[in-house]
């Protein structure tokens, strides 16, 4: 099962989210399958993880770059405590963007054990600069 590690890092533009996904080959294949379902059926698809986070994938035709965010259900944060309790990693992109992400997730285990960045998902498609950076760690048996 995918395990998500969340860190907050201070940068010149403020506090940013940094995510590290640790998973094995079957987990990345399952994640890719959920991306495929979101493309094919147009509904929100969810990936459960072994951490407190879940991943929600949405095919959004107007979203021409991959956009991810860490939010709570309502995306409203009246207190700092609610901000620190965010547990939904949202992934949005057009069908073309999600197709590239799907292929990238399937290819990750073929690269062997190690880290890749989600921003590498496509050569010709953008990853939103307003999104947290993800490091995707492949664990081999």
Can you lay out the helices and strands and say which pair or pack?
Blueprint (H helix, E strand, L loop, with lengths): L2 E9 L2 E11 H17 L3 E4 L5 E6 L7 E5 L8 H5 L3 E6 L1 H13 L6 E4 L15 E7 L2
Parallel strand pairs: 2-8, 4-6
Antiparallel strand pairs: 1-2, 3-4, 5-6, 7-8
Describe what you observe in this structure.
There is one protein chain. This protein has helices at 25-41, 80-84, 95-107; strands at residues 3-11, 14-24, 45-48, 54-59, 67-71, 88-93, 114-117, 133-139. The protein starts with a strand and ends with a strand. It has a single domain, classed as Gyrase A, domain 2 (2-Layer Sandwich). The model has no long low-confidence stretch (mean pLDDT 95). With 141 residues, the chain is an alpha/beta fold. It is globular, with a radius of gyration of 14 Å. Helix content is 25%, strand content 37%. A 4-stranded mixed beta sheet has the order 1-2-8-7. It has a 4-stranded mixed beta sheet with strand order 3-4-6-5. It contains 3 helices and 8 strands; from the N terminus they run ββαβββαβαββ. Helix 1 packs antiparallel against helix 3 (95-107). A hairpin with a 2-residue loop joins strand 1 (3-11) and strand 2.
Short description:
This protein has 141 residues and is of the alpha/beta class.
């Amino acid at each position: 099962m995918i395990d998500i590690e969340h860190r907050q890092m201070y940068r010149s533009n403020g506090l940013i989210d940094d995510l590290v996904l640790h998973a094995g080959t079957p987990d990345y294949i399952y994640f890719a399958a959920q991306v495929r379902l979101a493309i094919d059926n147009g509904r929100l698809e969810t990936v459960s993880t072994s951490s407190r986070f879940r991943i929600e994938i949405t095919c959004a035709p107007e979203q021409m770059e991959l956009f991810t965010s860490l939010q709570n259900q309502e995306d409203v944060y009246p207190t700092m405590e609610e901000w620190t309790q965010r547990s939904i990693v949202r992934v949005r992109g057009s069908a073309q963007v999600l197709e590239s992400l799907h292929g990238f997730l399937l290819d990750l285990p073929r690269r062997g054990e190690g880290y890749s960045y989600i921003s590498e998902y496509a050569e010709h498609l953008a990853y939103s600069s307003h999104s947290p950076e993800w490091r995707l760690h492949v664990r081999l048996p």
